[in-house]
């Protein structure tokens, strides 16, 4: 019985470690009125968005939404940064699971245009 429990603990440990390794970080930089990355193509998976504020002069944020559905009720809430991004600093989102499709990202505080994020 002890061997079975030990094996289960080891297998579960590897499973959790594998899941943790699957989260990728997407780094995006904002300058005054725009993101420096104008479009992004990603594979299906789980991501954390790291947003940097490069001398915008005030706090910025991050919004990710399905293309064509940019009103607040359709925002992907986990993609919001966990705290506003102060001038010349960075902040991250929570984990976001993305499936195939087209999305847009933008900052209403900067404000920026809407840019395309494709998931293939």
Quickly describe the structure:
This protein is an alpha+beta fold and 120 residues long. 17% of the residues lie in helices and 38% in strands.
Fold and architecture overview:
It is a single chain. With 120 residues, this protein is of the alpha+beta class. It has one helix and nine strands. The protein has one helix at residues 2-21; strands at residues 23-31, 34-35, 39-42, 45-53, 63-66, 90-92, 96-98, 101-106, 115-119. Strands 1, 2, 4, 6 and 7 form a five-stranded mixed beta sheet that branches. A hairpin with an 8-residue loop joins strand 8 (101-106) and strand 9. The chain is globular and about 35 Å long.
Query: How many strands appear in the DSSP assignment?
Result: 9
The Cα radius of gyration reads 18 Å
| Secondary-structure element string | HEEEEEEEEE
Which structural class do the helices and strands define?
Answer: alpha+beta
Low-confidence stretches: none
Proportion of residues in β-strands: 35-45%
Treating each run of at least 4 consecutive H or I residues as one helix, how many helices? Answer: 1
Instruction: Report the sheet with the most strands, covering strand number, pairing sense and barrel closure.
Output: 5 strands, mixed
Shape: globular
Question: Roughly what percent helix?
Answer: 10-25%
Distance between the termini: 45 Å
How much is the average pLDDT?
Answer: 90
